[in-house]
Amino acid sequence: MAINELSLLVLVPFIVALLNIFLPVILRKFLSVAAVVYLIILNYQLFINVAPDAYLFDVAIFSVDKLSLFILAFIQILSIIILVFSLKGVDKDKEKSFFVLYPLTVAFCNGVALSVNSIGLLIFWGLTGITLYLFAVLGSKKESPDTAKKTMIIVGGSDVFLILGLILIWYLSPGQSWNLFDASIKLSGWVSYTAFFCILIAAFAKAGGFPLHSWVPDFSKDSPVESAAFLPASLDKLLGIYLLSRMVMSMFVLSPVMYMIIITLGALTVITAVMMAMIQHNGRKLLGYHAVSQVGYMIMGVGSGSILAIVGGLFHMVNHTIYKSNLFLSLGAVEKQTGSNNLDDLGGLGSKMPITFITALVGAFAISGIPPFNGFYSKWMIYQGILDIAKTATPGYQVWLLVCLVLAVFGSALTLASFMKFIHAIFLGKRPKVLDNVHEAPSNQWLATGMLSLMCILFGLFALEIPLKRFILPIMSEYGLEVPAMLGYYNPLLLIALFGSVLLIGLVVYWGTRKVRFDEIYLGGMDALEHFRVTGTEFYNEIRNMKPLKGLYDGAEKKYFDIYDVSSRFSFSITRFFKAVHNGQLQLYNLWIILGMLILLWVVL
């Protein structure tokens, strides 16, 4: 294989990972940083001058277009920021393995984005699943091994469907010679539908879409927080939605019904995950469910068939990786200073960790869709794109689309409610005495969360100028998709003025009428014990116990809706059946032989 710039995107971090096996930790960190910085420079050069394809045995294996360059750019950007956070704070007993797996993961993710050949995609896709499993194994919780197994079975098991889907594509379009780009297969006949749904399963499993999402909250809770920010919050989202984008824009030609199915799955992903997030007391698991919920918006946008919504879906994919990494790392900074990520154990840390408080607040505003932060505009574009589809749809489809849209908007409102709980429980309220000596996170950690917070603001204020015009709109042009002249009405300065006015009026009213009295709390004439401290999570317990929802939440906690646990129970029931019918008694085995012979004779005759 001739080595060119495309090959270096994979080879450089891969070689660094191999060298890191033998080097001390300090050199592992230095080489990892140097490699990712070099990749950013290389990626910038590719934007200016696209490199020729990389060939192996006269077959093109690596190639780039605007979509893959877009994905590659944010793989490197997020990798360097999360790596800065990881330079100080990773558990000492995990550091050596972490800084081998980190560049290795970057190499494999770059390989997925570069692969123009199905076989190459399968190899790198599978390797990213292995590194995901190994990062899960690094977790120090007692549940970490089970979580790693669950992650491997769901994500790794979906590779089987990806293999089958790509083989069927080759069968339907043999002239493509395993080339992934521009297959444009029309969905007609069971073979094409099977190929489509097989690849859709792989994309959903990687991104964390419903119903293949259940590994994400568990991975987020039980793995190192750096790997939670690095993979399910960032790189896995990029790869899963990248594959979905390829499917709907170049690999298949979809019918309106198929678009409706994808939109519906996206809406279900939004509402089911956000409902589970609201009742969580573990901060990392709350963020994990929100990582799933936000995927629903991306699925609705990219899989809608509306150009405006596709642009919004790709934009939301990037926005999500930015603010969700910020939230995971902000919580990680708190966890490293306090020793806990349980919301009931925290509180009042805003004065002790003011920088982390601000970065977490920015992330909370962004994920809740508060303008002018970046999460607002991408959701707004998705909503408008779906409304555009509804204008020309038949009455039945219109109702269907509007139901999905209402679920998505309601999910956004619940996201805001959920992050009011998150911010209050960690940074506001009364601080437990055990946390009185907590101090601000190390500079590398707040520098990383600060950069992500700044991106949340810049991508909101300058959405058209930076992410859309420089990254996403060129993708649409390359695919021959005519972008609407008006990408949804959005004026960030006007929004700032409106929200600022409301805030100012509220402050004037508050300061003009406030009558605040601070009293001590007594129980039975004595100072209240810290056990009775208000934590900020109690209100959500009432939601958990509401009659219409209690049964659903009980079922969810018993894993009745978890495809992994349901499949496990089904598999074990089959195993128990075969154990019962093969109990070692000779007469029973003779009976099976006779029955088998009778069935064989019946089939033959």
Short synopsis of the structure:
With 605 residues, the chain is mainly α. The chain is built from 22 helices and six strands.
Describe the protein.
The protein has 605 residues and is mainly alpha-helical. Among the domains are: 254-561, no CATH class; 563-604. Helices cover 72% and strands 2% of the residues. The chain has a two-stranded antiparallel ribbon with strand order 1-2. A two-stranded parallel ribbon has the order 3-4. Strand 5 and strand 6 form a beta hairpin. Helix 3 packs parallel to helix 12 (307-338), helix 11 (283-302) packs antiparallel against helix 12 (307-338) and helix 12 (307-338) packs antiparallel against helix 13. The termini are far apart. The mean pLDDT is 89.
| Elements, N to C (H/E) | HHEEHHHHEHHHEHHHHHHHHHEEHHHH
**Spatial arrangement of strands, main beta sheet:** 1-2
Major sheet details: 2 strands, antiparallel
Helicity level: over 70%
- Average pLDDT level: 89
**Beta strands, count:** 6
Q: Which percent band covers the strand fraction?
A: under 5%
The helix tally amounts to 22
Shape: globular
Question: Helix- and strand-based class?
Answer: mainly alpha
